């Protein structure tokens, strides 16, 4: 029988120390900052951009609404002024009417001259014989015109038709009152029995 040699236990002396020193020691890196630390400035920047965008949109929307209100107010004012301009234009046309001007001149005592004289300024000469004006030369402005016979006849027929209609309405009212009085009398006699 052979006896096998037992494994040798490692020596506890200087030999072991050399073995462990042969392995190289490396420096452990510093612990990394938390994962939120580098993201924090980015999150703050994005949040500020979002808030700034929302505030910008609100300011823009408000200014657009104010502009729309101002535009509506100015449009209404323009419409009012256009209507006033048309009214004043109509009044001006009425005032420019030759009949109105002639009537106003007559009210002021102006008359048409019989003999008009013309003054030529460049030659400093008077053409024609000036004469004072009087009312006899001024024609009537609005001569009265009688109504045609057909118009007079139509007005007469319309008046007769209106009178007949009024009389028929009065007769119908009287008959209704008489009928109501008869009904009252019958009901009072029926109640008395």
Automatic annotation (TrEMBL):
Name of the protein in question: Cell division protein FtsL
Tell me the superkingdom of the source: Bacteria
Keyword line: Membrane, Transmembrane, Transmembrane helix
| Disordered, as annotated region | 1-30, 125-147, 160-193
Which segments cross the bilayer? 40-60
Stretches of Basic and acidic residues bias are at: 167-193
